[in-house]
Design goal:
The protein is an alpha+beta fold. The protein has 4 helices and 5 strands; from the N terminus they run ααααβββββ. It has a domain of about 100 residues. Strands 1, 2, 3, 4 and 5 form a 5-stranded antiparallel beta sheet that branches. The protein starts with a helix and ends with a strand.
Length: about 170
């Protein structure tokens, strides 16, 4: 019954409500909680941004691989349409550039161990950012000392086509 009388007293009831509201309104985050939250958010944002940069690099790489592959395929078709007797003289050791990729070099190797079946290898290397894609580190189209990492005697690259052409 005493409790009921307290609530009936308007002044006491207002004081209790004010006290509860004041406690609710003055509650907040501590400095430590804010700093910890900011650190977590910063870590997450850095991860997202680094993923974005990596994706942009992968898009550029994909684009360059596509362009280099199309250029190599075009050259392979040109070689296939050439006279069989002229392929070695016209294309063996041919160094070319891919117009749509700045600082790029391609090279053609023709293996004539079998005079009736030529093995044609077309490799394309290019500079992307700070690194060279392929073994031709100085992009001159020639295999220099220290460039042949697998010791096969030809410039290898991500874009490397091999085809056999028979004497018809």
């Amino acid at each position: 019954m005493n409790t009921f009388k307290v609530w009936q007293d308007k002044q006491t009831r207002n004081n209790i409500i004010d006290m509860v509201l004041r406690r609710e309104l003055t509650r907040g985050f501590t400095l430590l909680e804010v700093i910890l939250t900011m650190g977590i958010l910063l870590f997450a944002i850095c991860g997202i941004l680094s993923s974005y940069v990596l994706c942009a690099t992968l898009v550029t790489t994909s684009k360059n691989v596509n362009i280099a592959t199309n250029a190599a395929l075009g050259l392979a078709e040109e070689i296939r349409s050439s006279s069989f007797t002229r392929i070695i003289d016209d294309y063996n050791g041919l160094v070319f550039t891919v117009n749509d990729i700045p600082q790029s070099r391609g090279v053609v190797y023709v293996d004539d161990d079998n005079p009736e079946l030529l093995k044609v290898v077309i490799s394309v290397c290019w500079l992307q950012g700070n690194r060279v894609v392929g073994e031709d580190l100085n992009l001159n189209g020639w295999l220099d000392a220290g460039e042949d990492s697998n010791g096969n005697g030809i410039i290898d690259s991500t874009v490397q086509l091999t085809t056999l052409i028979a004497n018809r």
